[in-house]
Design goal:
Radius of gyration: 19 Å
Strand content: 15-25%
Helix content: 25-40%
Structural class: alpha+beta
Order of helices and strands: EEEEHHHHHHEEEHHHHEEEHHEE
CATH topology: Beta-lactamase
Largest sheet: 8 strands, antiparallel
CATH class: Alpha Beta
Number of helices: 12
Distance between the termini: 26 Å
Number of domains: 1
Shape: globular
CATH architecture: 3-Layer(aba) Sandwich
């Protein structure tokens, strides 16, 4: 239960007038998992959505998944549907002796607008492989094959794969999962507090070199284009801040961890992507990240009459 009111995490200003605000919750934990700064309620319970993917991929590695580094990054992705992403999904499936028909992601178009338009212009229909979670699902299927688990029911919350993921998520977060729902991709989504989400990524980046969590987050850092895409802010964050592991999630969620284990988790109450972006950039600068490198991510311009007349920015710091 939320006991602290949400805070203003972003404002949007047009022609010198603050038109409105985005409210939400933000937490910063140190490398030991202790909360060192928060806005709103650090114990706010959320479905982290795709921000749980690093922990999900960690569970799969612990269960024997062994992929080339770029494909391991793809297993923790919400990819844009670029050619490299779809080729990577097919490669994971091929390594498992499967094809696209095994995917149980909903049929969709590529997330990237240009890729989507090109897909439709080619006369192609929505397809499971184009859905942004297909990398995770391919890795889930591969993990099932490795362990001799049924592939037809891999999305069921009671499936051994999903039970292994729940155990791993709770171990990294240091707290129990309170709620289990169905994510947009059809796989289970498991709740955490915002602090638990931050701790989960903090612990993953601090593992020993061969630790599953460290392997996953190192892959993400090494191949940020496979975590998001060429034009995605999650990829831009990892390019801008050396060693940063970051994962965006639907409904205004973000989690990011610096190499020392300092981690940030964000939830915009209205599900705003723009609010979570500027909030994360501003908090990172407050933690000492390069302000110049993050400048393109700290504000989002607002247009009027074909000119820039305002911006979205964050008061956090």
């Amino acid at each position: 239960m939320t006991t602290t009111a949400p805070a203003v995490i972003a404002t949007y200003t047009r022609s010198g007038f603050t038109e409105g605000v985005h409210i939400g919750h933000v937490v910063v934990v140190d490398p030991t998992g202790v909360v060192v700064r928060s806005w709103g309620d650090p114990n706010h319970v959320i479905f982290p959505r795709s921000s749980n993917k690093p922990a999900q991929a960690t569970a799969m590695v612990r269960q024997g998944l062994d992929l080339p580094v770029h494909l391991l990054a793809l297993s923790a992705s919400s990819h844009s549907g670029e050619r490299m992403h779809l080729a990577g999904v097919r490669e994971i499936l091929d390594l498992a002796g499967l094809d696209e028909s095994a995917l149980q992601t909903p049929a969709d178009f590529p997330l990237d607008p240009m890729e989507r338009d090109a897909w439709i212009a080619d006369g192609r229909r929505a397809a499971p492989i184009a859905m942004n979670c297909s990398g995770k699902h391919a890795a889930m299927l591969a993990t099932c094959v490795i362990n001799g688990w049924p592939t037809q029911t891999y999305r069921d919350a009671a499936h051994p794969l999903q039970q292994a993921i729940r155990w791993q998520l709770e171990a990294l977060a240091g707290e129990p999962v309170r709620h289990v729902g169905v994510d947009g991709c059809g796989a289970p989504v498991m709740s955490l507090t915002l602090t638990g989400l931050a701790r989960s990524l903090s612990r993953a980046v601090q593992g020993e070199v061969d630790d599953p969590g460290r392997r996953v987050t190192s892959a993400m850092v090494a191949y940020p284009d496979f975590v998001g895409g060429s034009n995605r802010d999650v990829t831009a964050f990892m390019r801008a801040v050396p060693g940063l592991a970051a994962k965006d999630g639907a409904e205004g969620v973000y989690v990011a961890a610096l190499p020392d284990g300092t981690a940030i988790a964000i939830k915009a109450e209205d599900g705003s992507d723009r609010a979570r972006q500027v909030a994360l950039a501003t908090v990172l600068v407050g933690l000492g990240a390069d302000a110049d490198a993050l400048a393109p991510l700290r504000t989002i311009p607002l247009s009027g009459g074909g000119a820039v007349v305002g911006e979205v920015s964050s008061p956090l710091g």
